[in-house]
Task: structure prediction
Amino acid sequence: MPLLDILRNIANELDGDDDDDFSGTVEPYSLFCARDDVTLMEKAIKTEGGGAIAIIDLLLKRNCEQRQMVKKAYQESSGTALDKDLVAVLSGEMKDLALALLMTPVQYDAFLLREAMEGWGTDEEILTEILVSRTNDEIREIKKVYKEEYQRDLETDLDKENRGHYQDALLNLCKGTRSEEQHADKDLADSDAQTLFNSGEDRAGTNDTVFIHIFTTRSNAELRKIFQRYSKHGDGEMAEVLEDELSGDVEDCLIAIAKCAMNKPSFFAEKLHSAMEGYGTRTKTLIRVLVTRAERDLKKVMKEYKKMYEKSLQQDILAESEGDFETALLTLCGKDD
Result:
């Protein structure tokens, strides 16, 4: 959904707190027994050619905490790591999905960030997506796990692999010190809106540093109020200002911050739609978004998807994927309400 459309719905968003209530699709399995699951997993791994869907089905029907218990019990029972054994029997999308499910959320985020910067080139979409959508506590935990898992410093890697104003924006977000104020101060919002106007529309050339500072330090509630108050100062709306005054990766980053501030489930619904739009399907994006939102807000993401595209996420998955992978994605989504 274009940012302009999101911002035009601002009146419906301004007075509500950011809603972090659980609306995931994966819940704890009520009859869970780690030892029983290990037995099932060992049997599926030994089933030549037909165990993939049984493996994935078991993982999908346990929540993250239960999967960690299965990993531990499997290691104790077999003497080998479950993820290594799964790599030997799975391939392609099913392997990627299984490995994602076996990580904790923070391990998976750290893995994605490392993968985005490893080797030749950088995947800016992943760097932006994670750093703009996670809480301060989550970012601090990601940095800790990144260090433990890869013996590297996340901020150092971000600094090395990126350039210019986009680099500045990522490093600001990586501090994990954004305001998390739920109630925006009108006077501060007016001041910030005026500052943004003075730094963009009201001058020749844009002071990117000012835009970056405000967008990477203010809370979602504060940003929503700033977007509303901006019309008092500028000729256009904030969406138009971002598109006119900025460019490249830093523009994409600040637009992503704005979208998350306005409606985070809508931000992820758009990611899922883009992954299936046009020729070919970006399966890694589907896995990443579905796994990372499954125990957070995937029901809300699916609701926004239907509102934005007038069809359900499950309908598009049926049209754009096939076989065991299609079955697995639909299981992760749950029923189509």
About this structure: The chain is about 70% helix and 0% strand. The radius of gyration is 21 Å.
